[in-house]
Every structure is written in structure tokens, then in C-alpha cells.
Amino acid sequence: MNSDKVKAGVQRAPHRSLLRACGLKDDDFEKPFIGIANSYTDIVPGHIHLRELVEYVKEGIRAAGGIPFEFDTMAICDGIAMNHDGMKYSLASREIVVSTVESMTMGHCFDGLVMIPSCDKVVPGMLMAAA
Prior knowledge:
Layout: H1 4-7, H2 13-21, E1 33-38, H3 50-63, E2 67-72, H4 78-81, H5 90-107, E3 112-116, H6 122-130
Parallel strand pairs: 1-2, 1-3
């Protein structure tokens, strides 16, 4: 598994200690680590439901024998950002989503990734990160 880079062998004892601080137990280190990129935020109407949705995704990952690790990405609502200087940041936010998802996935050596996006900048950002 790709996650063995952060969990297997004597040299990874410090890594395992940090993962134990996140609640992992001995048998969890034999399971795949699955990242969940969630674009939930409570200021974007199209993302509010993602907080609840991610809990079902975590349940599914556990049921399939994996260990879920959720992390957040940013999202800017075009409707709220339009007609003022905030609109300058909407398209640029897509690149931040790309960088966040790629950095978290590669930095933590996930074995798989579930992306939970919404809206027209976050969806392409997550797809670009997957590519």
C-alpha cells in the first residue's frame, strides 16, 4: 500500500505515534488510508449539505475495511463574491483547491481518495488534482 510509506517499519515509529494521536489502533495500520477531500463551508449555500454527506462516506470507507481521513478545501461562492473586489478571487480559488488536494494526498500517502465537491470552481479543481 502507498500508505506503508508513513506507517510500516521501525523507521516509521514516529509517524505511527502521530497517527495514534489521531485515534488509530494497532489493527488500523494494516488497512488502507483513504483521504476525503471535502469542500464543506458554511458560507457557500451549495456546500452546506456536504458536512452531513461526508459522514456517510466515512461509514462506507470503514465498512469496506479502510481508514477515512477527512480534510477540507476552500470554496468561494460566486454569487456572494460578485460585483465587488471579491470576484477577482473566485477563479484563482480553483488553483488553491488543486494544490490543497494534491498536497494533502501526496503528503500523507493516501491509498485512495474520495472527493466531495460542489460548485463550478471546486469540481474542476478537484478533477485537476486527481489528474
